[in-house]
C-alpha cells in the first residue's frame, strides 16, 4: 500500500492513491485526432430506434423519419477511400448523385436529443467507419490546426458523411474556416450533418439558430435542410434534483475508494487546463473512472470558463461521473458570463456537469 495513501488517512480503503489530472500532460498525434472522429462512448450504442420521442413534440418523430431516409439515401454516390468522387474503374459510369439537399441541420435547444440523432445518423449511414467522421466543431477546428487546411480537405474528402456536433456561431474566424472546409468537402461529394444550440435568451423565438447557422455558412445554405426539434432538456425530464456538493472529506474518501478515480483541487485544475491544449482534454481523461474535485468555486475569467466547457464536454462524452465539494455547478459562471455571447456554452456545461454529478452520487457511501 502506498505511503501517501496511509498518510492521507485513507490507506485502509484503497490499494493506491487516486491519480491527478494536474499531473497529466498528454501528447496526442494528429493520427489519433482523425481516428477518434467517431461518436463518443456515450453515443456508441444509440440508434434511431433507441430515441424516445416526446409524444407531445411531433417534431421529434418527424426528425427521426427524415434522418432515417437521409441515411438510406447516402447508399448511392460517395467519394471512394482515395477521395476521388465517382471513380469506379474503366468503362463504368460514376454513380448518380442523390437528389435533394446534401446536408441536414438539427435546430433545437438543450437536451432535446440532437446529438443522439446525429450519432444515430452516423451509425445508420451505410459505409465503413473509416468513411464516416463525427466530431464537435471544436474538434474539427483542432484537426485543421493539427493537419493544416489542405491536408484536412484531402483526409475528409474520401468520406461519405461528416457530422459536426455543437456548431459554434460565436467565433467568426473559426466559422469562416469551417465554412471554407465544408465548401471544399461538398464539392468532393461529402454529405454533411450539423447541430447547434438555440441561445437560451432566444428559446421560443422560432428559427433563430437555423437562421444564424445558414447565414454564417453563407454559400453552403442551399445544401442544408433544417429540422426543428422542439422539447425540454431530457437531462432534467422526470429526474431527481442533482445532488448538492459534498464535503471535502466525503469527496476525498470516495476518490480513494473508487478504482481509477482522479482527485484534484478545482482551482489547481483550472490552472493546469491553461497549460494543456483543449484538443488534448480527451486524452487527459483517458482511463479515468471518476473525477473528484474539491473546493469548486466560480471561474475567474472567460478564457478559463471556455476551457472548462471543453473539459465538461469531454467528460460528458465519456460518461465520467464528477463528484465535487464547494459550490453547486450552477454557480460556476457569473451572471455577466451567462448573459454574454458565450452563454449557450456555459448553459450546456452546467447541464452536463449536473448530469455527471447525478451519476456520481452512488460513489458516496453512507
What would you say this structure looks like, in words?
This protein is of the alpha/beta class. The chain is built from 14 helices and 8 strands. It has helices spanning 3-7, 30-35, 58-73, 114-124, 137-147, 149-156, 172-187, 208-216, 248-257, 266-273, 281-284, 302-317, 335-338, 343-360, and strands at residues 103-108, 132-136, 161-165, 191-197, 224-229, 261-265, 290-296, 322-326. The strands form 2 sheets. A 5-stranded parallel sheet has the order 2-3-4-1-5, with helices on both faces. The two termini are 25 Å apart.
- Span of the ends, CA to CA: 25 Å
Q: What level of helicity do the residues show?
A: 25-40%
Order of helix and strand elements from N to C terminus? HHHEHEHHEHEHEHEHHEHEHH
Global geometry: globular
The largest beta-sheet arranges its strands as 2-3-4-1-5
Reported for the largest beta sheet, the result is:
5 strands, parallel
Mean pLDDT score = 82
**Structural class by sheet pairing and helices:** alpha/beta
Summarize the structure.
The protein is an alpha/beta fold. The protein is 39% helix and 13% strand.
What's the helix and strand layout?
Layout: H1 3-7, H2 30-35, H3 58-73, E1 103-108, H4 114-124, E2 132-136, H5 137-147, H6 149-156, E3 161-165, H7 172-187, E4 191-197, H8 208-216, E5 224-229, H9 248-257, E6 261-265, H10 266-273, H11 281-284, E7 290-296, H12 302-317, E8 322-326, H13 335-338, H14 343-360
Parallel strand pairs: 1-4, 1-5, 2-3, 3-4, 6-7, 7-8
